[in-house]
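Appendix B. Worked example

We walk through a single record from start to finish. Start with the input: the chain for SDR family oxidoreductase, Myceligenerans crystallogenes, length 245.
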Amino acid sequence: MKIALVTGANKGIGLATARRLGREGDHHVVVAARNADAGAEAAGKLAAEGLHATSLTMDVTDPASVAAAAAQVAERFGRLDVLVNNAGILPEATNTSPKEVLDLRMFEQTYATNVLGPVAVVEAFLPLLRKSPAGRIVNVSSAVGSLAHQTDPDSPWYGMVVPAYQSSKAALNAITIVLAKALADTPIKVTSVCPGWVQTDLAPGNREQAPVTPDEAADVVHRAATLDAADPSGTFIDAAGPVRW
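Next comes the structure step. The output line below is what the pipeline stores for this chain.
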């Protein structure tokens, strides 16, 4: 049975992704969450649905927490087959600070979770992914971080200005490319995915206005998490296919 770990998996896209992977039947899903009770509750829901799931307490912004979580996975499973870096935040959506366009506090807060978090998680869990015959890393990104979309007046995302969030996703995409090149001589494949505008708690109004359900968003994450050996690494995809960097 494959071992899949999803960060921020107690709700939203993370929980839907954990459920989608668990329904394959050959995945034991590790529900990683910052809040131990929330993670245990989510894993319990999945287990009650007949899926193989356990919870793991991990705060991606705390390297010690990440290292301890990796040690627990190593002790229990001995390897990791799928890593989904899903945990992410958008504090600019509720920021009322009278700053100029760039707000250092927003960058520090956003990057801690959206960029440094995945870096810490990959660093800690890569040795376990190397023990898998077909390791997969999925970085949950966004088309709003695409430089091509940000500079294209015809893009639906052109008018969006949330600098910390957009640049954090651009940085995450760059990490995907670097990892794919660094791991090119291994079976590990790395993919950035844009799940779309999803009905989550990421920003006010998302649940009411967003057109994509978490279950629909989980489909594209699942696709990247289960790439065939012949599929390319280092790509950026959404439900429709490749996304411009």
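Two observations about the output. The longest strand covers residues 27-33. Strands lie at 2-6, 27-33, 53-57, 82-85, 136-140, 189-193, 235-238, 241-242.
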